Amino acid sequence: MSVAIDPSEKFAAYAHPERLVSTEWLAEHLGEPGLVVVESDEDVLLYETGHIPGSVKIDWHTDLNDPVVRDYVSPEQFAAVLGSKGIARDTTVVIYGDKNNWWAAYALWVFTLFGHEDVRLLDGGRDKWIAEGRELTTEATAAASADYPVVARDDSAVRAFKEDVLVHLGNGPLIDVRSAEEYSGERTEIPGYPTEGALRAGHIPSAASVPWAKAAAPDATFKTRDELEAVYLDGAGLEAGDDVIAYCRIGERSSHTWFVLTHLLGFENVKNYDGSWTEWGSAVRVPIVQGAEPGAVPAR
Amino acid sequence: MTSALPDALAEIRDEFLALGQQERLQLLLEFSNELPELPERYQGHPDLFERVAECQSPVFLFVEVDDADVVHLFVTAPKESPTTRGFASILVQGLAGLTSAEVLAVPDDYPQTIGLSQAVSPLRLRGMAALLGRAKHQVGLKRRAA
Question: B50, B124, B134: best mutation site toward chain A, by most A Cβ within 10 Å?
Fold first, then answer.
């Protein structure tokens, strides 16, 4: 890893402390060679209203998703986007964003599909940076373009498809990170996001309900390791060594949970089912359970 | 039946279409910054406003039809949601001075015609379609009540 790791005590308790940096660390390291700071938000214009000096923007819709097929960009497109942002294969990338780093975690997960090694999140994201009164600028960042290689995307390690979930059913835990109302089937969409609905409501049989925000502290940082273990181990019943699949509605909130389970709690085989409820809840003849209980996997 | 697009909305559309993708975002940001504050008589009256649930952020909308049948659209959206503010601002400026019948005749697919699908994404543009739909719905209700 090319840029020094944040030695914060809080991070040292996590399985992979090198995946997080604090706002203090970032303020000290801004401008360091080999470091590129990326803002990734839900709102496509938020970066333009003011961003961390020197940071570049990567938008999940327009930069990371294929515009036609429901899939991520091709290796060529990914290389072109990263190269244009001044990111090389060995660059240390720190991603931050709005809404407790939802979209930042999603971007980090897509970087992981392409095997970018050194990619970290800013603990607390955009909100904490602003709350601390740190500098923002509207000045456009003039990123010197870099040569990013065309690298194959590996969909096998951290990504689950619907077929994988069907095989996983009954063989390993699932974590549903949506709101309680979406889980029980009272509603098909998140409050405020009805445009990303599904035809049926409920959850995948046996999935434990752990809304993603349970991993976040009020200041948008991640909870401590002990607090996270209370949520996912004691609360949701995960055990060390479990293979886990997380899902939400389109895979962005579950990227946040994927990050927590993989990098903070050290689960080694966690997959994000990005098809999530918008696929499962509209698919024909897949099993669905309604109500507050996880429910049983139907016999096959 | 196709209805002619009101002048202001047509001008806004043409303004966007004349620009490259990156400049379109900048123009949307300008609109966002121009979204007017609520007039004093409506400040502190959250009861009058309808929440636009289709938008990804807390957006509230209120329509007034005055004695001359002219529509006035008021929208509030947080600073952290500049895209939604931009959409709202386009509609506030584009519908300004129109009669209720003219507002109801605005094509529902207007948001899809202003060249933002690529720069903003079709999914996000649905938020603007929802704003327009809610505004027209309220105009319809107020017309009937009058």
Answer: B124
